[in-house]
Amino acid sequence: MNWDAIGAVGEILGALGVVASLAYLAIQIRKSDQTARANEKATRSATASDVARSLSSWYSNLGLGEVGGTIFRKGMRDPESLTEEQLADFLYLIHGAMLLYQNAFVLGQEGTLDSSLQAVTLGTISAVIDQPGFQFYWRQRQSVFTKSFQDYIEELDPQDDSKLSELYD
Questions:
Q1: What string of DSSP letters covers 101-163?
Q2: Each residue's pLDDT tens digit, 126-169
Q3: Over the range 139-148, which residues count as b (16 or more CB within 10 Å of their CB) and which as e?
Q4: Which domain holds residue 99?
Q5: H helix count then E strand count, the chain
Q6: Are 146 and 98 in contact (CB under 8 A)?
Q7: Does residue 163 lie in a domain region?
Q8: 30 lies in some domain
Q9: How many domains does the chain have?
């Protein structure tokens, strides 16, 4: 064998090595994509669960606490009828919920929370935005929220025909 033949064999082996490396890389990328999709699905699922659990906990605690529930409903209907202490409690209660809603809004905007779940979750705010207590709260506290969340709330239409707002009537 001469040096030219050995060089040609070396080039062929080198080319086969490059092809094998590219095939291996393609397999690894495919596995990586599948893992990334599975991780994204798990993250979205956990996020949806966390949002639901947080809001459910807030509503449950409010409903189970007779004093808090009474203050909240009375405050929604007529915040001026509350004592100074009750008004502070009302503001704390509604602010806690609004922080949870803003979190759901942000997660939906960045795509972590499914858009349909975001719409249903945030849609419950439209049942209270025309209530005197919400208006009182929003005038005082809207500046502590992100501009995009403020804009979202400002653009919501009240659900006049909704059964959701009957609780405050």
A1: HHHHHHHHHTTSS-HHHHHHHHHGGGGTTTSHHHHHHHHHHGGGS-HHHHHHHHHPPP-TT-G
A2: 888 889 999 999 999 999 889 999 999 998 877 655 555 566 66
A3: eeeeeebeee
A4: 47-168
A5: 6, 0
A6: no
A7: yes
A8: no
A9: 1
Most distant CA atoms of the chain, gap in Å:
104
Helices 3-64 and 66-77: crossing angle in degrees, nearest 10, is 90
Query: Please, are residues 145 and 102 in contact by the beta-carbon 8 Å criterion?
Result: yes
Spatial distance between the Cα atoms of 72 and 84, rounded to a whole number of angstroms? 14
Residue 13 within a domain: no
Q: Give this prediction's pTM.
A: 0.64
How many CA within 13 A on the CB side of residue 56? 6
Tokens of 31: 């596995």
Q: For residue 120, which of 61, 169, 51 has the smallest C-alpha distance?
A: 51
Tell me whether residue 77 is in a domain.
Answer: yes
Angle (nearest 5°) at CA 57 between 105 and 102: 15
